[in-house]
Design brief:
six-stranded mixed sheet; disordered N terminus; single chain; two-stranded antiparallel sheet; 8 strands; 13% strand
Amino acid sequence: MIRIERSVTMSGLALAIALLAAPSAQAQSADMTFFVTSSGPGKGADLGGLEGADAQCQKLAQAGGVGAKIWRAYLSTQAADGKPAVNAKDRIGKGPWQNAKGAVIAKDVADLHGTANNLTKQTALSEKGEVTNGRGDTPNRHDILTGSQPDGTAFGAGDDKTCKNWTSSTQGAAVVGHADRQGLRDDEPSKSWNSSHPSRGPDGGCSQADLKSTGGDGLFYCFASN
């Protein structure tokens, strides 16, 4: 009898702790305006174009309790088929942006693309509030799709830098950044959060397997634009 009462008491205590913790977790995420996707659509760099990438941001934000905001993927596209280029920096609003734990990433677009932004491995959290695996972790997932130059603008037409504007899962290449700001060398590209190197691999450069082979997983940045 004593054992049963003790078990009930412990269960009640655990429930009380969980109930107390829940509002705190919600309060942390309510003001989230930035995250790294915990997963992509699963087709490598074929995100369904900008529209599909935005939808993935919105879907994950909804699951994270912040779906009321308008979410946009930090992705550039190149001029093609009569359509103009799109700059990633022009898609994400004015800021400021903060992660799931309340840490401010950047106060505005200029700050985000400057040398003093607060985007690091510790702050590049997913919509779940989890750290994104980086160099030295297994698996490494620090390659983040952007298709962008360091200042957040699109590359010129010609050489593919966006896996055919986020519609190819085979041939092409996509420029990625490093969420943990680390690479093989101690240079600026290796430390860049948004413009480190192009993807590559045996399937053509844009498949899920290709992205994984160089330390990625088809992830991208999402920002609340409103």
